[in-house]
Amino acid sequence: MDSSKENKENIVESAPRKKRALSCIQPTGIPTLGNYLGAMRNWVAMQDEMDCAFAVADLHAITVRQEPANLRKQIYEMFALLLSIGLDPEKTLLFVQSQVPAHAQLSWILSCHTQFGELSRMTQFKDKSAKHADNINLGLFAYPSLMAADILLYQPDYVPVGADQKQHVELTRDIAERFNNLYGNVFTVPEPYIMKSGARIRSLQDPTKKMSKSDTNQNAYISLKDDPDTIVRKFKRAVTDSEARVYHGEGKDGINNLIEIYSSITGKTFEQIEQEFEGKGYGDFKIAVAEVVVETLRPIQQKFDELIQDKAYLEKMMAQGAERASKIAQRTLNKALKKTGFVII
Ligand code: TRP
Question: Where in the chain is the domain with CATH 1.10.240.10?
Fold first, then answer.
């Protein structure tokens, strides 16, 4: 080993520990451009700065009824997508939740430290039970204690999530603090890490609403799997206003949304974009937005198409991730079991 390398390693060793981050995504449908620009792309940027772990939250998916063959397909797809967007399994821990049994185990312990009243107040539970009135199952109610287990097993400092998940992370903090107060320090109390830029990409058909993959109108969202023609067509149909001048301003929700998408991809400021499209119509602007979106998604789609053909490779990567994740998770689980009074053999 040459001395410069030795030096570098010493520096690494004496540097403060990297912060840790963990997040999960449910394998329910292909994410939208909004999910990508608002969350997933930031995960890729974070992996150089922090010790990151990202998982496919398949156990959460069955809180609403899933068709088994379709669930299986979506687990492969979501895992392949995590790799396709540029998460690097050499740097970042990538795994599938159900393949690490400690999640379900810790979830039980945490359930016994979570109050009925707390879970009743969760807005996602209220929304989902209104939407699936015929299937308000125990898992849907207990969803946040499984999510708390996902998080606390890995002792992260940060949990990067969209604003809609903040309440669940706050509850996780409460559960962790309660547990630590009862039994001594077991869990790091994590902070939600709410992503700012590009976080609020809106529907192309009703820009007062968030872009959502569950929208019944397919023209309202760009799916990460949409081909170039579809992307161009959807942007051409995007709702705008009658002023025909490209600038970011009040009452221009549709154009504001397109400017925000363009800005979040190109890194240009709103002013630069206004200058670029000065004297041009909405038609030109929409094409330009569609083009940068197509080019952003192209390499992701290419990688995805390649990976999804190769189930053996995906399973190998899943197995590696599950093994690494289990080591970390088991350590925390054992500590929690021991402190709670269980016999570890
Ligand atoms: N509930 C999250 C969502 O629907 C997914 C999720 C499950 C999650 N476990 C998690 C997010 C742990 C962050 C951390 O978006």
Answer: 218-304
Q: Is the overall model pTM greater than 0.90, yes or no?
A: yes
- 290 ligand 1 Cβ < 6 A: no
Nearest CA to ligand 1 atom 15: 25
Is the shortest distance between the CB of 289 and ligand 1 below 6 Å? no
Token readout for 318 is 């899943």
Predicted confidence band at 200 (pLDDT cuts at 50, 70, 90)?
confident
Digit-coded pLDDT (tens) for 14-63: 567 899 999 999 999 999 999 999 889 999 999 999 999 999 999 999 99
Spatial CA neighbour of 198 closest among 34, 343, 321: 34
343 Cβ contact list (under 8 Å, min separation 6):
none
Cross-strand bridge partners of residue 22: 53
Task: List the structure tokens of 228.
Answer: 């170039």
Numbered ranges of CATH 3.40.50.620 in the chain: 3-200+311-340
What SS3 state is found at 274?
helix
Q: Is the CB of 24 under 6 A from ligand 1?
A: yes
Architecture of domain 218-304: Orthogonal Bundle (1.10)
Alpha carbon of 4 to those of 17, 63, 165, 279: distances in Å? 22, 53, 45, 56
Catalytic residue among 166, 213, 225, 236: 213
Query: Which residue owns the Cα nearest ligand 1 atom 6?
Result: 24
- Any idea what the Cα angle at residue 181 is, between residues 183 and 171, rounded to 5°? 110
Residue 12 φ then ψ, to 5°: -60, -40
Residues 226 and 246 sit within 8 Å (Cβ to Cβ): no
Q: Tell me the C-alpha distance between 50 and 197, whole Å.
A: 19
* Other beta carbons less than 10 A from residue 300's beta carbon: 19
Residue 215: pLDDT band (50, 70, 90) is very high
Verify whether residue 128 is a known catalytic residue.
yes
* Class of the CATH domain delimited by 3-200+311-340: alpha beta
Of all residues in the chain, what percent are helix, strand and coil, respectively (each to 5)? 60, 10, 35
